[in-house]
């Protein structure tokens, strides 16, 4: 495995103001790392789940004016796409890396999946205290697991555009980011703890 970690240079990609410049930085600095990380984690998840998992790297193809504020890879059981499916993500904003199990607004069977999480709310709350929840993948901020309330998951069920992403934020100065092996182990450990909820979501479909 050749991934050697993230650098300040990677995060500085988001300080480039024009679309073409930022996209070139993402494509040359970050996406090759995503290919390495994603291939490794897709193999890991395929082995853990007993079925093929596919890597998708965000292309940001629809953007014509505003440069992206973040970029990511996604791993799902569907070869053609990931947005309609429960999926795993690794990605960057300018100040942190996120490691998610993601359920975004395009998700098929969203009410049933959300209800399975409502029914299992106590086990979600038993995840490590340093885990965070995002209710909107477009926003940087996340809430601490201890602050998650049942109404947040009910909103995910009831509101069409509502989302639910759970995992970790690693701030830009986290030493785990600069060591490739350590980061990959961190991602694997995070996914390992989240796999029961992925399986629950797949069963609820």
Textual characterization of the structure:
With 205 residues, the chain is α+β, with helices and mostly antiparallel strands. The chain has a single domain (8-204), classed as Protein of unknown function DUF1054 (BirA Bifunctional Protein, domain 2, 2-Layer Sandwich), CATH 3.30.930.20. Helix content is 41%, strand content 18%. The chain contains six helices and seven strands; from the N terminus they run ααββββααββαβα. The protein has a seven-stranded antiparallel β-sheet, with helices on one face. The protein is globular.
List the helices and strands and how they pair.
Layout: H1 8-11, H2 19-49, E1 54-57, E2 71-76, E3 87-92, E4 96-103, H3 110-119, H4 121-125, E5 132-134, E6 143-144, H5 150-158, E7 164-171, H6 180-204
Antiparallel strand pairs: 1-2, 2-3, 3-4, 4-7, 5-6, 5-7
Helix pairs in contact: 2-6, 3-5, 3-6
